[in-house]
Amino acid sequence: MKFTREDIDTQELDRRRALYGPLTAAVRDLVDATIRTEVDEAVIREVQATVVAATAKLRAEQIDGGFGMRFTADGESIAWGNAGIGLRNAIAPPLVIVSDDAGLHWTEVTLGAAYEGPPGLVHGGICALVMDHLLGTTASSIEPRFTGTLTLRYRRGTPLGPLRAEARIDRNEGRKTVVVGTLSDADGVTVEAEGIFIGPPTPTE
Ligand SMILES: CCCCC/C=C\C/C=C\C/C=C\C/C=C\CCCC(=O)SCCNC(=O)CCNC(=O)[C@H](O)C(C)(C)COP(=O)(O)OP(=O)(O)OC[C@H]1O[C@@H](n2cnc3c(N)ncnc32)[C@H](O)[C@@H]1OP(=O)(O)O
Fold first, then answer.
1. What EC class does the entry list (predicted)?
2. Where do the structural domains in the chain lie, given as residue ranges?
3. HSE on the CB side for 102, CA within 13 Å?
């Protein structure tokens, strides 16, 4: 697994956030526009050439493989390629997860046309992505935990648009943390989730 240290201070981290964040937002917008456009054929071809040229510019210097997970000297994580939260990943919704002192974790996110499954509804796999990431972050609030089992009950279709997901730890059983959560629209719960998240063995195990 690719965990590396990034020797940069907060100011440099902020500078990079301000540089890459808007690029990612522009690409995310391009994805949405590509799905929904009704422009003429000639414009589609022209835009395709522009996008290909832009991609070639970015490819001039690339890292090998995925972005990995990097940490600053202050312990701040930089998971910018992550499919759920990645600042440099236009596929990520992106999720911004917050928590309170009582251990509730939640995220409010608007999922648009790029996340559609059944017409007008969020793809079931995308619901799973949101819940996996939120529940995993909740489970990892004390120490890192991997998803072992994720169980979802899709109670009704989740409409595209603004959504809220919540999670909390149900119980800890040694290396296992059981987390429960929900995904909701304005009318209530659409998906119920339960996950078993597992930490690395302790040295004595
Ligand atoms: C922000 C970036 C996020 C990146 C996440 C990466 C790493 C985490 C780092 C930081 C965390 C920060 C934020 C987290 C945010 C999101 C989390 C997303 C998480 C993921 O997206 S992660 C990708 C998908 N995930 C995998 O890729 C796992 C593949 N798999 C394995 O790596 C092993 O399979 C493992 C480790 C699961 C277990 O392996 P093991 O050898 O340690 O387990 P072992 O056999 O010793 O069992 C010990 C006890 O767990 C029970 N047990 C075993 N397996 C189970 C299972 N699957 N379900 C339910 N219970 C299970 C046994 O029954 C026994 O229970 P008991 O003690 O009661 O008998």
1. hydrolase
2. 1-94, 96-198
3. 4
Going by alpha carbons, the residue nearest to atom 33 of ligand 1 is 148
Cβ atoms of 119 and 158 closer than 8 Å: no
Predicted ipTM of the assembly: 0.93
Q: What's the CA-to-centroid distance between 132 and ligand 1, angstroms?
A: 12
| Count of CB atoms situated within 10 Å of the CB of 153 | 11
Neighbours of 136 (CB within 10 A): 21
Compute, in angstroms, the gap from residue 50 CA to the centroid of ligand 1. Answer: 43
Assigned CATH topology for domain 96-198:
Thiol Ester Dehydrase; Chain A (3.10.129)
- Give the tens place of pLDDT for each residue, 5-38: 988 888 999 999 999 999 999 999 999 999 999 9
Task: Give the start-end residues of each E strand in the chain.
Answer: 3-5, 69-71, 77-78, 97-99, 105-111, 146-154, 161-173, 176-185, 188-198
The predicted model scores a pTM of: 0.95
